[in-house]
Automatic annotation (TrEMBL):
InterPro entries with a match to the protein in the record: Enolase-like_C_sf, Enolase-like_N, Enolase_C-like, L-fuconate_dehydratase, Mandel_Rmase/mucon_lact_enz_CS, Mandelate_racemase_C, Mandelate_racemase_N_dom, RHMD-like
Obligatory cofactor(s): Mg(2+)
Swiss-Prot/TrEMBL GO biological process terms: amino acid catabolic process; carbohydrate catabolic process
Catalytic reaction list: L-fuconate = 2-dehydro-3-deoxy-L-fuconate + H2O
Protein name: Mitochondrial enolase superfamily member 1
Domain Mandelate racemase/muconate lactonizing enzyme C-terminal: 201-297
Amino acid sequence: MVHGRVSRLSVHDVRFPTSLGGHGSDAMHTDPDYSAAYVVLETDAEDGLKGYGITFTLGRGTEVVVCAVNALAPHVLNKALGDIVGDFRGFYRRLTSDGQLRWIGPEKGVVHLATAAVLNAVWDLWAKQEGKPLWKLLVDMDPRTLVSCIDFRYITDVLTEEEACEILRQSQVGKKEREEQMLAHGYPAYTTSCAWLGYPDATLKELCSEALKDGWTRFKVKVGADLQDDIRRCRLIRNMIGPEKTLMMDANQRWDVPEAVEWMTKLAEFKPLWIEEPTSPDDILGHATISKALAPLGIGVATGEQCHNRVIFKQLLQAKALKFLQIDSCRLGSVNENLSVLLMAKKFEIPVCPHAGGVGLCELVQHLIMFDFISVSASLQDRMCEYVDHLHEHFKYPVQIREASYMPPKDAGYSTEMKEDSVKRHRYPDGEVWKKLLTAQGN
Ligand SMILES: C[C@H](O)[C@@H](O)[C@@H](O)[C@H](O)C(=O)O
Ligand SMILES: [Mg+2]
């Protein structure tokens, strides 16, 4: 039974200077400092449990999101956790429909990232109070309760509450076996860590051969800034991994629609499974055009890490604009909104391959994809979850990878809690790490 009233919400600006090593760099984000607006919820309950929630940001963007979290705080403070999760749809709606904050969304951008941080903390707390990892809390929830967490506004033309319930009911068959399968073998993953755009070739080679030794069979490479450079790097990586292993490419929104088609036609010889974010994440019809043009080359379009909300996903699915759907645990309004996208993907039979390139994203999204396999999709066909090998040491319950697969988390919660010392050292600008860096830069 959930209990307690939220007595305190604190939010921290936590940044890691990843840009110094080019980690996480791509054709658009050339100097990313992996960061998080990190929310801590405390209650008046005697168990002392806290809810931790993050949203992934980059460097200076964090302080803007922190501000938005503080603006949302009155919706959470002094609320009983039982009332929040007992009417989770209503609570989600209240947060996203704040009469003044909605104007700077709605359900998109900074205010939606902040919503995700707050709701991720609520889910963490709920799962902790139930003594279960989040994926298991979801798996054990009956279909009615699950759908009661979803706001179906704007998507009932493709998915009604009844249909969602029906999908979940049908997927009850074989659920136990799928859970056992996950516990024994984990969820298949791919790695992005070898080929960030800012890495020199020597680093790429070294990381690639290490990853091969560790059993990785699926690799993603960043492209999009310079065609000749892309050809060289893609050739290098394809030669290293051989013709059989899977290669994905990610352009991080760099191209116009015709440019995307031309560029990818030139990279087709390296046999990419997908091109990710070829153009603006808002351009649904553009993605559809690219999808259609690249299908004969055997290249699918993947997108989602910067899709604002369920409405954009709905339209991408309706327009047949993508072959792989990439949910993000912090871009959308937390588990609540992601549930609706997982269910729509199931209806349209599009495989979900979550985005995890950021701090904490692997920790979070593994829960959602395990739930998806056990309770929604019931399939591993064409599916894999992204993995990046950065910053896990700062989490209290870091991801466990075995033979290139995510092993199901066993600890209660959403794996969002960071180590106290890591938060302290990386808080911006007063943490020790930043104090040193800022002094060295003469600030
Ligand atoms: C700035 C980030 O590292 C992005 O490059 C990253 O999320 C990337 O798009 C990915 O797919 O992992
Ligand atoms: Mg990407």
